[in-house]
Amino acid sequence: MNQFFLHHEQSKELAGFSHIQEMAVRKNSSIQLNSLCKSITESIRIYYILDGKFEWLINEHSHVLYPGDLAIVLPGQSFAGNRDCLDIGTVCWIYVGVEYIDKNRRMVLGNWSGLTKNESATISRILQLNNVAVLANVKKALTILQAIREELFGQEIGYGTRVNHLIDELLIFIARQSTHQNNFRRDFPQTFAKLEEALRQNLSHQWTVEEMAALIGLGTTAFSEKVKNYTGFSPLNYLINIRISEAIKMLKRQDINVTDIALETGFYSSQHFSTTFKKLTGYTPGDFRKRNSKT
Amino acid sequence: MECVITIELGTNAVRVFAFDLSGNVVGSAKGSYPTFHVQPDYSEQDPEQIFITMLYVLKNLITEKLHPQKYTVHSICFVASMHSVLAIDKHGVPLGNVITWADNRGKKEAHDLKMSDIGKVLYSATGTPIHPMSPLVKIAWLKANDKERFDSTFKFLSIKSYILQQLTGEYVIDYSLASATGLLNIHSVQWEANALDFAGITAGQLPQLMSVFSTPGKLRKEYQNSLGLSAQTRIMIGSSDGCMATLGAGTWREDKATVTVEDSGAVRVVGRQVLRDDKQRFFNYLLTENYYISGGPTNNGGVIFEWFAKQFGDFGVPFDTEQIMDNLIREASNVRLGSDGLLFLPYLLGERAPLWNANARGSYFGINIKHERQHFIRATIEGILYEIYSIGKILQEHRAINSLSVNGSFATIPFCAQIMADIFNLPVSMASNSNSVGRGAFLLSAIDMGIYSSFEEAADSTTIKETVSPRDGTAYAPYYKIFERLSTKLEAEFEEIAALQQRV
């Protein structure tokens, strides 16, 4: 791709795409001081390396990128060049603004996106949990970026829809690819152990099967089948296992009240907690605590 | 109609079976739980998750399979994997997680003890090899490295003791599991004073000893209600997975050995006498006052083949390890016995019997330009089974073994069973019931109920599905000779490479 630079305040090509803050291809032929200082933005930044070798600090981790590699910087994450300089080479980027970040640190994309609310939330969650800043050797991303550029400059009928579709496609591709890169998709027990860790770290979250499956990089049907085969439980029942086991530990500690335990372990209410707990153990949480009390 | 439930608290999962009184499986279910490795040598599990998973699986089995078929549960027999340690405080609350058999944090304590005179005394008194797996060593580690937990510990339990305490209120342990703690004198069947001294604890800090046929008490009322069981349901303490795998495989004769290979493996024999070994290579676990299960365990069983499959198999469908392994075995069967001179040492996880060397490592040896991928597959499988034979071979110094009974997911692959028959040059039989541990626990209950009059009679009731005969009994011998020599010859290099690997 030849060099170009589009900015939402200056470029007529971006009129009607308020969420695309920048899109550009830049060929950098000399190293200049302070050409890439540390910054934090509120948009999703996607970089694709066309030529050269780049050393970047993304979210305080250093990465070396080669042609064909893609970097993604999420809202709130820091981004800087090594020694604050942009290395020699050619890079393509697009900055996609998000409407807002909700209290669970999830990105809400805005009306332009065709992703459903659930899918968009899941993609956002996966990108954060996988914490993969760099995808190695993803030529397909270039095809999508090129198509976006062509649509923006060509402005043929339907381009407004196509551009937004392509951005959705790019985000879906990055989410899937980051999961595949994280798991080799060979070792189910190992991959499942990672998922389990993610569940435990955020037990109060209302996990859905879609989210869990996406984290492992499988479709929901294949995922549920695998989990059932491996653990003996459906994904949601397995989650209940973890919730109740954690709740038991808290009940034995005596210093947290039952409602807080219920919420912390991801039950909707103390009623929901109590019913589930009793069905499984024969005790209500209160009785269970009494039986294990210090007297 | 009456049935017997067996509950196996295994390494990765709880497996529950229901048997009718003739020994047919009328229902089964499993539930898995994770192992946490917070540090490289650590291997822990959450006792509450194990308990909840067991309850959940048991409840589902009873309400979905047994009640609709109008079965009433006569008894529930418990089996657990060996060597686990759980510290609890005076209120019965766990102090941290269960430390499993695979935990190696006590490496240094084990090494020092093994080299000492008291180590030799303890090995011959307790029958448990001095190794980080041993609860004796784990408790000593806690004493030296986790003083706070050690000092607040009211009792040191096994995972089964904890589960039974939750269900019945009593702190108990059976002779089999106790004999795998390194703390029980297997000759006097009392806690061994020297071992207690070494661990720094009193007998009062351990659960109450019981015969495998004993009942610790009745099921608590709440669990009777939630599980839909009557107060008459007998809770039987049961035994260890190793002992039950031997009983369930139908091996109750001195001239027969049982080979179990799942992820890890073991070769075991049963007898009325302890096997004495100056090199401390065998375990001698107690089943009842007059029976010992002796043998050697290996770390490197099916888990090594799985490792190979994950690294080098063709994954068309994600996570489809089983299909991959089937394909690999098909490829391996194209190669001649002995893999045209390619040898594999399978010690990727260090090794227990017979080397007892945590620093042993794997190796392919003898590679030449004509070796192809399929040779590596076959060599990997043969290497795992040479290691099994190396345990069997030292057992043969003590017992004349005339046949083998194999169980476990890896050992019962027909291709593997045939290789074992060839390497051992002995007939190899496979039981019809693939879960020997569950079946063993059923037989124990059946003996208790008077259905069988003796262990021999119970074991004989196990039907054999298939017997494989050796084809060319001497063909493997020259390969095995090199395997054995390499395994000992490389000792110095194992040390050095392991030291380098630990630096990374």
From TrEMBL, chain A:
Give the record's keywords alphabetically.
DNA-binding, Transcription, Transcription regulation
Q: Which organism is it from?
A: Ohtaekwangia koreensis
Protein name as annotated: AraC-type DNA-binding protein
Q: GO MF terms on file?
A: DNA-binding transcription factor activity; sequence-specific DNA binding
Q: Which residues form the HTH araC/xylS-type domain?
A: 193-291
- InterPro entries, from UniProt? Homeodomain-like_sf, HTH-like, HTH_AraC, HTH_AraC-typ_CS, Tscrpt_reg_AraC-type_HTH
User: Among its keywords, does the record have DNA-binding?
Assistant: yes
TrEMBL record, chain B:
Record-linked InterPro entries: ATPase_NBD (IPR043129), Carb_kinase_FGGY (IPR000577), Carb_kinase_FGGY_CS (IPR018483), FGGY_C (IPR018485), FGGY_Carb_Kinase (IPR050406), FGGY_N (IPR018484)
Tagged with keyword Transferase: yes
Swiss-Prot/TrEMBL keywords: Kinase, Transferase
GO MF terms listed in the record are: kinase activity; phosphotransferase activity, alcohol group as acceptor
* Residues covered by the Carbohydrate kinase FGGY N-terminal domain: 4-248
Query: Which PROSITE patterns does the protein's record reference?
Result: FGGY_KINASES_2 (PS00445)
- Coiled-coil regions, chain positions: none
Q: Report the family membership.
A: Belongs to the FGGY kinase family.
Its name, as the record gives it, is: Gluconokinase
The protein's organism comes out as Ohtaekwangia koreensis
